[in-house]
From TrEMBL:
BD-FAE-like domain segment(s): 44-231
Sorted UniProt keywords: Hydrolase
Species the sequence originates in: Sphingomonas kaistensis
Gene3D superfamilies recorded: alpha/beta hydrolase
Origin: domain of life: Bacteria
Name assigned to this protein: Acetyl esterase/lipase
Alphabetized Pfam families for the sequence: BD-FAE (PF20434)
GO molecular function: hydrolase activity
PANTHER family xrefs: AB HYDROLASE SUPERFAMILY PROTEIN C4A8.06C (PTHR48081), CARBOXYLESTERASE (PTHR48081:SF9)
Amino acid sequence: MCLALAACSPPSLLSSVNGLVPGDNGARRVAEGIVFAPAQGLKLDVWSPRPSARKLPVVVFLYGGGWVDGSRGGYAFAGSGYAGQGFVTVVPDYRLVPAVRFPAFLEDGARAVKWTRDNIARYGGDPDRIALAGHSAGAYNGAMLALDGHYLREAGVPAGTIKAAALLSGPYDFLPFTEQRGRDALGAWPRPAETQPINFVTRSAPPMLLATGSDDRIVNPRNSQALAGKLEQAGVPVELKIYPSKSHVDLAKSLSRPFRTTTPALADSAAFLHRTMGR
């Protein structure tokens, strides 16, 4: 019954059922509740593969939830999933609507990248091989951090720190705001064009994988197609994956062990990041 409910339940249930199925190659949470932004009261978790004699590539996973919901604990299944694919994985919290509006959640993401750059070596990660990953609103956050360099720069992150991004089911080109969550999170910003990832594509953008489901009714697949086209025009390496007959929830669900066969999103994004950053 629990597995059946997971198809329409919140991420925390996916994390709960994740533990019912063995796997992820010995991945484990090696740090929990580390404060990375004291002034904002924000914490993160670190997930690690089996111990290695060499520094491993790093993924900072940004969760979704429409900028109004989500937590690092609820997305333990994503931390475990990417760690099982050979990445030291950081899952940070960020402030949510209505407590904040754009661009506060992007500033929080930049703070998480700063902490990762400064501290991940002590957990076996390579600070010179950091990638972003995320789903839905988290994919939006990842795209903005990867494309609009001023957020990372203002957080003290060196240029070129983000080597790649693997983004799932994200909104990247969605003006005008026709959906309530978008209006609540972004609609008050006086220059709407500055909220759109697609407007910040340059030839210096990191390689990106953009994945979506053809039946996504929450974030139209056109968003991924449009951003992929803009990146390609700029000469940036990009891979577009559109999974037939798959929904918005399907891509997030498939990061959890019991549902890995739903889509190959985890395997595809991991393979892309390994090709881009090296194992």
